[in-house]
Design goal:
The complex is a heterodimer.
Chain A: H1 17-29, E1 33-37, H2 41-46, E2 58-60, H3 66-80, E3 87-93, H4 94-99, H5 102-110, E4 116-121, E5 147-148, E6 151-152, H6 161-166, E7 172-177, H7 181-192, E8 198-203, H8 207-210, H9 217-226, E9 233-236, E10 239-243, H10 252-255, H11 268-285
Parallel strand pairs in A: 1-2, 1-3, 3-4, 4-8, 7-8
Antiparallel strand pairs in A: 5-6, 7-9, 9-10
Chain B: E1 24-28, H1 38-42, E2 48-49, E3 57-58, H2 68-72, E4 78-82
Antiparallel strand pairs in B: 1-4, 2-3
The chains are: A alpha/beta, B alpha+beta.
């Protein structure tokens, strides 16, 4: 592990959760991997021309078509007869996954290409200045869902992207969090051992957009899972097969760590709404540890 | 040829991002280390290396000083020290 495939010198912010996630994924996948990366923070900070932080073949595509490009790469490898020894991984941010790239992902999942799609979910378009995306949670303060006298932030709940992927009936869909590093690597290895289309969504805190100290990235990621706001689940062929059980903590423990939820600290009724989202997750997935 | 091509893998090492540090840098005390690898796993730069306990080291040429390693160390064997400190 001391030899990483994602080397230093990239230009991510200090404490970047996405660069932690990217290293965990590529080191778990190993050197026989082709990475397709759509536009986003990861693409910008890891491949500042004429330099690259990657030690594996890497191709940049547009925002909307990373999954389609990867489908082509996978088909070419199949034709050459080398697919079985090569992993194909698509990496995208939450905007490139849930908003702009959704149709290409749906096509990739539906055709069941042998590809692992990894979504680094930092819950907004961080690269362009913290605009809300489909995966931005309820009541988040972003530059396009600002708080004010008439607004408490983002008005819509998070898009259920793992469920959308699982509804395609693909062999493996999972969520993970950089707060649980071994769990991320286990899920990547499990996904790559399965033939067919796989979807993995990793929760990656962004110190800049979430407004927390750079040293708190892991603490914030863990708090989201422990509050029930980011359930760690696994689906196989559309069926829920595993969840990480927790002793649920109040959502304030997670919200108070971040500047993007600072406005909620003054309105208990809004915190109740966020708590209701966590409670419904806990009930829906059976997250609570049975004593 | 299409698009800009980068033929040298890992060439971002030319970018010495250590100059980004502003106030503090991590100091690995190498006293109570149990070799759990958490600092190595979570370093966003990947600039911590090592394999056995008490052998982990930080490459200050790249460390941006986020403090994640000091926060996660279960034995508090990593501390953040002032940038000017000699050791």
């Amino acid at each position: 592990m001391s030899k990483t495939l994602f080397v230093p010198g990239h230009t991510a912010c200090a404490g970047c959760g996405q660069s932690m996630g990217a290293r965990l994924v590529i080191d778990a996948a190993g050197p026989n991997t082709i990475v397709v990366n759509n536009t986003g923070c990861l693409e910008v900070f890891s491949t500042k021309y004429p330099e690259s932080a990657w030690q594996v073949p890497w191709i940049h595509s547009l925002f909307e078509n990373a999954a389609a490009v990867a489908s082509g790469v996978e088909s070419a490898l199949k034709f050459l007869g080398t697919k079985d020894s090569t992993n194909v991984i698509v990496q995208a941010g939450d905007g490139g996954t849930a908003d702009i790239g959704l149709q290409a992902i749906s096509g990739m999942l539906e055709r069941n290409h042998d590809i692992l799609f990894v979504c680094y979910d930092n819950e907004a378009y961080m690269n362009t200045g913290i605009q809300r995306s489909g995966l931005t949670p309820f009541d988040t303060n972003t530059t396009t869902s600002p708080i004010g006298a008439q607004s408490t932030g983002n008005v819509r709940p998070k898009k259920p992207m793992p469920e959308i992927a699982a509804a395609h009936g693909v062999p493996y869909v999972a969520t993970a969090s950089v707060g649980f590093t071994q769990d991320v690597q286990r899920k990547v290895k499990k996904a790559l051992s399965i033939k067919g289309a796989k979807y993995l969504q990793i929760h990656v805190p962004c110190p800049l957009g979430w407004r927390h100290e750079s040293s708190m990235t892991i603490q914030v990621a863990k708090a989201a899972v422990e509050a029930g706001l980011y359930p760690l689940v696994e689906y196989e062929y559309g069926k829920l097969t595993a969840v990480r059980q927790i002793q649920p903590k109040p959502v304030e423990e997670y919200l108070k760590l971040q500047g993007r939820f600072k406005h909620l600290m003054k309105s208990p009724e809004e915190i109740k709404k966020v708590q209701a989202i966590a409670d419904s997750n806990i009930e829906k997935y059976g997250l609570k540890t049975q004593a | 040829m299409f698009g800009p091509l980068i033929s040298k893998p890992g060439s971002s090492r030319n970018n010495k991002t250590g100059s980004w540090r502003t106030e503090t840098k991590p100091k690995l005390l190498k006293q109570n280390c149990i070799g759990c690898k958490m600092c190595l796993l979570i370093c966003p730069e990947g600039c911590i290396t090592g394999a056995e306990k008490n052998t982990y080291a930080c490459d200050y040429l790249y460390c941006k000083g986020c403090g994640g390693c000091a926060a996660i160390c279960p034995k508090a064997d990593i501390v953040m020290i002032k940038e000017e400190s000699k050791d």
